[in-house]
Specification:
Largest interface: A-B, 56 and 67 residues
Radius of gyration of chain B: 16 Å
Structural class of chain B: mainly alpha
Largest sheet of chain A: 6 strands, mixed
Strand content of chain B: under 5%
Structural class of chain A: alpha+beta
Helix content of chain A: 25-40%
Number of strands of chain B: 0
Mean pLDDT of chain B: 82
Distance between the termini of chain A: 46 Å
Oligomer: heterodimer
Low-confidence stretches of chain B: 1-15
Number of helices of chain B: 7
Chain lengths: 362, 161
Amino acid sequence: MSRVEDRLRRDLHQIADRAAPSPTAWDAIRSRIDSQEPAEETEIIMLTEDRPTTRRRRLVLGLAAAAAAVAVIVGVTLVAQDDETEVTTASDATQVTTASDATQVSTASDVTPADVLDAYIAAFNADDLDAVMALFADDAVVLNDPVTGTLRAEGIDEVRDVQSAEISFGESYEVVSVDSVGNTATFGRRIRTPSGRCYAGTNKVTVERGKIVRWDVLTHSQPCPQAASDSVPSAAADPARAACEPASVELVDAVSLGLAKEHGPGFLDQAFVVETAPADRNDDGHPAHILGARINGERIPEGTVGTWAVGDPGPIMALNADAQEFSDWSAAAGPPNSPTATRIQELAATATAATAETCAGG
Amino acid sequence: MMEGMPQAEIVAGPGPTSLEVLYRTEYAGMVRLAFTLVGTNAEAEEIVQDSFVAVARRFSELRQPGAYLRQVVVHGCQSVLRRRRLVQHREPAPPQGLTPEADLLWDVLGHLSEPQRIAVVLRYYGDLRASEIAAVLDMPSATVRSHLRRALAALRKELGE
């Protein structure tokens, strides 16, 4: 227990003791209940009543995901000594059991990080802690801070504690994008809480010999980006926004990977794309779109709206000042007056870029 | 569990047989919890009384009315904190009669983000685990741990410890 934690426990109790609960409050409460006085509606999740349904749904989804995962994993075989449930696939060489203990894992050299990731998500969503832990190396580490690289868990026992807590809370995971390079996989992950709220974050796993040896949290989970909301004027109300199309999740996740870490965790919302005019594209058709989105985060000023040129295919380029300050995509520009920097200036001055910024409320 | 703390655990499981029993076991602790978040007795009592009325509507269907009550109270505190931030742009004066150390802590807590502040109070006053705080705030437990870690880092810096 650190000094600041000791102090918190002591001084928070002192603060709490300054409260003076009324000894006659019951009469007031009883009176309000009896008169059926309507109270302000509060958005509350039901901890207990909704849980069984949620858990059943997640189990079904988890088993389906497990079946899908084993179909693509070649060389990872989970063999249980105490069979309780068995999921078989068309691949007769692959078998997954979800027994609660004594799980063995054999690996093959061609298991990719994406394969391990698939297996992890399937096992997690099936609430199978042993299958989850079978995917971690004994000396695995979890680094939990994208800026400082703070160690969150070291060794299989600490990793198990973390995974156990997350499984017991009833979260479910979904991978929305994966970028595999060598023995690493960087992936966008969506987390659903038991009540269905959505959070998104970016993580990276490093895999050796079929096991996760390192898990990096690159961006902390934030509420999922929303493509549009009532706070942004509709296209009907504002003709300037008629060209605005909600950006795809994949595109938002791709651009989010480049949010500048020195500004702390950040995420995009109100993300829209505007199709570029043919005259603004190069011979490869780049950029296909200009993305405009709000950049949110604890250390990012409110009202920050970035615009990026995005290709299909092609590089992502930070166009306006906010995108250049708060995302690392500005690094693509190179030195001033380079061909790329000149190109970015041209694109930033187009009507499409201005429209994309308007789309996101800029 | 320390003296004076919200006693939600007492009513876990089958729960109290009547709302009045829940009131007797929980009311004072919930007012203290709300007070550590909003800082005024009047608002804390109003939040908790509103919460009891909300619990009463579904009392018969709740299996853990104490946990549900705590969740409603924290949501009520969140509403007050947000309203203050958006409309009043101010924090209430520190409660009277605090030691200088507690007075400084109150001031520093006011500089934390809302989820960090709530997570800290639930952890170090309410004695809740991260997974329990996650259930109250409806966010991933990893996010709660992140809020706690960042809050502690900020507090260490601000308090010079």
